[in-house]
Amino acid sequence: MLYKSRKILLYFSFIIIVVSLGLVIPERLVNPVKGATSRDWNHQTFWYSPWGASGVHKGIDIFGKRFQQVIAPVSGIVVFSGELKRGGHAVAILGPKWRIHYMAHLQYRDAKVGDWVSVGDEIGGIGDTGNAKGKQPHVHYSIMTLVPYLWRIDFSEQGFKKAFYLSPHDKLISIPSFG
Question: What dihedral do alpha carbons 177, 127, 59, 74 form, nearest 10°?
Fold first, then answer.
């Protein structure tokens, strides 16, 4: 019985250490569209409603030229690389602070699930796939936290989801473009 208790304690200690390390790793963030600046997206679109089938826009759309390079905004592991009905070609990267950086409507994807990407590595190109078909080429960029910020919840449309979605605009506005 004592052996099982120690094993369980060791297991939970390991989980606490891993989670804690993920929270303290510094987050170096860059604009995921190489060469883009804050003039390339509408600063009012994060949490804009109504926004089609999703109800609320939980990210920003960074506009550019078709095939313009999309780069890893953070260093991390690719946890999704595939095609979605609404997002088209999409890539999601788990980065520092247990945050998932999601880029959608890509014309092509260079990253595969399990790949380690560093800040600035090419992961795809701007496009109009998914529900952006026929619209100006852009990348939808969302940041989701796996550690909820419960104090951000409010009574707006889908307000409970504010605990999980962070404003890419607020994160990007204070940094220079990459490349």
Answer: -50
